[in-house]
Write a structure and sequence with these properties.
- By secondary structure, this protein is an alpha/beta fold.
- It is built from 6 helices and 6 strands.
- It has a 6-stranded mixed β-sheet, sandwiched between helices.
- Helix 4 links the parallel strand 5 and strand 6.
Length: about 180
């Protein structure tokens, strides 16, 4: 058994905001798959700090800040010569969106043991809906184990430094909200 053709990973989340931990997972996915599609999904259990369009721009800008070579001759929503795209999905399942964009895999990130239970359930459900799209889990680097969008928002709200959590463009977006 071998892979056939090009691989395309879907990495979906709320990315509100995108963090250095998210970028770590994106980097691992770029090294593993031929193409990566990062998608902002709507989580009905969370209210957004940044709108979807602004979050898409923050993802693109954070990636370019992290990997300047990503920009090249980028189009509006693609980087790394088209190998990375950023999009959004609403009112459909993760698996349905994966099918729609032609993803061959779904990427998920793990930070801590507590993430495993939720991801284990999602893995099982996604596998029942469409077993032809495997879910792949990457464990983030140790320095990102305590990095989350929620932590960035909480620390920012009390005036703490968040540069270890997010890229400069995200820091600037938080500052602009305060002004």
């Amino acid at each position: 058994m071998r892979k056939s053709g090009m691989t395309k990973a879907l990495y979906a989340g709320s990315f509100d905001p995108v963090t250095r931990g998210h970028l770590d997972i994106i980097g691992k996915a770029l090294l593993t798959f031929d193409a990566v599609h990062v998608a902002i999904g709507t989580n009905v259990r969370k209210s957004r700090t940044f709108g979807v369009a602004q979050s898409q721009q923050l993802i693109l800008r954070s990636i370019v800040e992290r990997w300047p070579q990503a920009a090249g001759e980028a189009q509006a929503d693609t980087l790394f010569e088209g190998a990375l795209q950023v999009g959004e999905f609403t009112n459909q399942s993760l698996v349905a969106y994966a099918r729609r964009i032609g993803a061959t895999h779904i990427v998920r990130g793990l930070r801590e043991a507590s993430d495993f239970n939720e991801e284990f359930t999602l893995h099982g459900v996604a596998g029942r809906i469409d077993p032809t799209i495997p879910m792949v889990h990457f464990i983030c680097e140790a320095q990102f184990l305590h990095v989350s969008s929620s932590t960035a928002k909480e620390l920012n709200s009390v005036g703490e430094k968040i540069d270890w959590l997010v890229m400069p463009c995200v820091e600037a977006a938080f500052a602009a909200r305060r002004d």
